[in-house]
Amino acid sequence: MTQIVKSKIDQACRVAEEFTKLYYETSDKRRHLMSRLYLDSGLLAWNGNGINGNERIQKFFIDLPTSDHTINTLDAQPILDSAVNGQLTFMIQVSGTVKYQDRVPKSFQQNFIITAQGDKWKIVSDCFRLQEPLSNNEKT
Amino acid sequence: ISFDISEEVHLPTTQQTFLCNQEGESIVRQFLEQYFLIFDSENRQPLLQAYHESALFSMTMSYPYGQKDRSTSWLNWYTTDNRNLLRVSDPDRRQKLLKQGQVAVVSFLQEMPLTKHDIHSFTVDLVLFTSQMICLAVSGMFRELKSGHKVPPTRAFFRTLVIVPAGSGFCIANETLHVTNATDEQARLIFKTVVSAPATPVTSPIAPRLTL
């Protein structure tokens, strides 16, 4: 394994630590700033609901019940150059628990693709899933 | 008479599938069917062709909220390779726990306990679909077979795949896998989906090669 890849792996891990700390603090306490974390054309897939663009994502977060996230696991990798033309891009995976308003906490899993834009990291895509039985919402 | 400010805010309804691009549906469906057909067999070696020669793979594990009592099916097998950056701070260890290259990845997959996935329990999120790169996340449940537990454990997983074009098909460039236990509410539903449509014809395990 070349040094370049090695240093990218180290960097992906460090950036993932900083990024997730900021992301969950912002979504729990300073939601009005959420849009700044995304590319203008960023995508959020929240439990299968797709929201396109950072302004609509901002509105989506404002409309969610208040949240309190606890992170249990964090993992990160640099995305292979062939996929992103050498544009520095990382994939981050998180699991944890989230408590909405006064509800019972639930486990969740989430992944992010983040990319370097100028001197800032921006979310390309954000995919969130609560761990819950599917039949709750199915009408069969 | 009280004040009307403690109104309950509702969560959006869960959708089983999200596709950022409808064109991606058949590709994703085909890829997942072929991948899990091989993954659930005793020989996972054919998956070599599904991975990029420089593919990266890592795994994390944890227990679901509130589930850590004596009745739990322990996730011991998964702890050794748990690349949880919150616990693993040593850079060398972080490097080592990241499987690098298709041989390392598939060797690890081959060591994992035998499984049977419930494809009807899957959620699929296709979040990126360009000519250069596809990113999708799959969650769902599987039964763990022959792993020494009295009752075969029901696990839940969440996989993120970055897929790139390769030759006439596609292969996986990056993958993260999260393994946890199914919650009691989830586990009750495993393999319970009644399919009314005719079952997909069973094909022999072939490598996930995709064509556009």
UniProtKB/TrEMBL annotation, chain A:
CDD domains: NTF2 (cd00780). It is found in: Cytoplasm; Nucleus. Its main location: cytoplasm. The keyword tRNA-binding does not apply. Pfam families: NTF2 (PF02136). The keyword Oxidoreductase does not apply. Keywords: Cytoplasm, Nucleus, Protein transport, Transport. One of its GO terms (cellular component) is nucleus. Residues 15-130 form the NTF2 domain. InterPro entries: NTF2, NTF2-like_dom_sf, NTF2_dom, Nuclear_transport_factor_2_euk. GO terms for biological process: mRNA transport; nucleocytoplasmic transport; protein transport. Has a role in nuclear-cytoplasmic transport of proteins and mRNAs. This is NTF2-related export protein. It comes from Asbolus verrucosus.
